[in-house]
Amino acid sequence: MAEFADQILVVTGAFTLAGLLALLAAVRRGAVPIRQQIERLQDRLFEIADSEERYRSLIEAQGDLIVRETSDRTMAYANETYRRMAGADAGMPAGQVPRLTVLERTEPVVRPDGSRLTDEKVATADGERWISWVETVVMDREGRSESLRVGRDVTERVRAAAALEEARQRAEAANDAKSQFLAMVSHEVRTPLNGILGMAGLLESTALTAEQKTYVSAVASSGQALLSLIDEILDFSRIEAGRLDLVAARFDLHQLVEGVVELLAPRAQGKGIEIAASVALGVPQFVVGDRDRLRQVLVNLAGNAVKFTHSGGVGIRLSRGTAGFVDIEVADTGPGIPHEKLDSIFERFERVDGSPSVAVEGTGLGLAISRRIVERMQGRIGVESRLGRGSTFTISLPLPDADHATLPPARPDLGHRRALIVSRSPFEAPFLMSRLEEAGGIAERVASVAAAERCLAARAYDLLIADCALGDAATKRLAAAARQHGVDRTLVLLSPFERRDFGPPQAAGFDGYLVKPIRPRSLFARLSDAAPAAAQPAAEPAPGAGLAPAAFHVLVAEDNDINALLVTRMIEKLGGSADRVANGHDAVSRLGARGRSRYDLALLDIRMPGLDGMAAARAVRAREHDRGLMPVRLVAVTANVSPADREAAMAAGFDDFLPKPLDPAALQALIRALPHRKRRRAAARRAAGAP
């Protein structure tokens, strides 16, 4: 529009006046005869009039509004478009043309060339319209400055933008409503699911027949599957709404990968397949990132691999990438993914085989969620697969080293000790070879007893590692062959299931054993001369260990009778006692009785009638502050499990957060800390002179 304003300047007469002045000067000088001068002047005037008319017609034909005003705001010119919009007659003098009434105006923007841009909503004969103006300064014939304004009707554009904004607001409102609906449904489903899973766990710990245990296990497995579906749907909803919040905190990357493998090991070993982890040298142990989200991605990928793999196994490899990235591979020996599905496998609701005749559990959201989490972490995720050959998912993430000056514990120096690994394992055995070689050893691997016997007869070995998956008889045969050929140390690889049936490793001729999946530190501890050959892993403390009967007292605030019974029984099994109230008012009253709380722990449900858990926690903390009481440990118990729910609970005064369905291990961890807490409270009371 600024260029068009320059064209209008020509029509206003600067070009015409210059031509006339030049011609008149020539007449005065007598450069040509008078008659010829008059004829030329007439021709020139005719050309000027024709040019001016042509440009005037061009201007009038424009759909834009064109207005020229003098310095005192007198209208010197208005084109037909402006006149028509202002309701003026075609022949009306410019000074009498009414001005458009401005109803709304945006802040003007000054461009580098001095022109001003502004939008105005004006009242016209055809209703309200939006005009986008470009205003420039021009000079008239006498050299005085005038304002030239060129406006374009942008009403439809403004309406489209307004409609788009309204649609965006409606979409956001609908998305918020969807999120609220999903959160409400999640809460309502988790509450009865808490009772189902919790009661199934309690029932499983009672005396049952084999058939009854099968039924209880099926109930628990189905409940966990339902819980996983709910979590996936909620996660995807939060991601789609742009509410995926990441944290940047220091965590142990090695332990995370090993923990994921150990978490999935019972499921894999129950199917008769293996799962193993490998951490290469040079990978930082402590990094900065979101541990929980990365764990979610790894559990998703490795869990899918276990689900679809029916022979062989699953392996997770951790290595250092380029430019500060860490690479993680999740490989399996499953059926593979068709080539045409590789591009769409990370889309929502996509499955490897979408036909209803194929029994595939899940929502089809797991890989879509994983991709969005990885991309949100500024990383990359991809997959390579061949039908019948398995699949390999690769993740590359920027995980800065948290301790640049600190390296992981050094591997022991095996000093070229020779090891023979006898295993058909597709992952665990190769991973073992890599760890031994990184420590300076020389490792060989064979897949059969016959091949192992040939190797033992051909050369001397310092170490033999045999996989019990070869069979009890074959494994014991290997131990005997190793003793016969003077092998210094023999170890057998056992899964927890095999460990129960195999018996003492020494009785089978082995010096010790390693439980699959194998951690490198366990391997090197077995190879260390300082460690006893038959050292056993520390036993898990029994529930309630170290606590006398009724050594702790818990207040349970829960309006659901089944959930209240479940929590009470869990507490009793852990060696404590519990009182139950059904609303927040009673909880506040009980916790403030007798001047100080007689409870070591209070479990408050967030949603209760009357006074909810949040309000109850705030009331308890206010009473403790006013009376100078020692604070009781408050734990929020809720089916609302989003990070925002956790933050709100902490802000209300809770010390901890237990999501429903209740995890007995999480409750047990809280209980185990209570004796230490009671001693601290008693010491504080004594220091204050309290009885």
In short:
With 691 residues, this protein is of the alpha/beta class. It contains 19 helices and 24 strands. Helix content is 45%, strand content 21%.
Describe the overall structure:
This protein is of the alpha/beta class and 691 residues long. The protein has 5 domains: 2-153, Beta-Lactamase (2-Layer Sandwich), CATH 3.30.450.20; 160-240, Signal transduction histidine kinase, dimerisation/phosphotransfer (DHp) domain (Helix Hairpins, Orthogonal Bundle); 249-398, 2-Layer Sandwich (Heat Shock Protein 90); 418-527, Rossmann fold; 553-687, Response regulator (Rossmann fold, 3-Layer(aba) Sandwich). Helices cover 45% and strands 21% of the residues. The protein is built from 19 helices and 24 strands. The strands form 5 sheets. Strands 1, 2, 3, 4, 5, 6 and 7 form a 7-stranded antiparallel β-sheet that branches. The protein has a 5-stranded mixed β-sheet with strand order 9-11-12-14-13, sandwiched between helices. A 5-stranded parallel β-sheet has the order 16-15-17-18-19, sandwiched between helices. Strand 20, helix 14 and strand 21 form a beta-alpha-beta unit. The model is unreliable at 1-16, 354-360, 529-549 and 679-687 (pLDDT under 50).
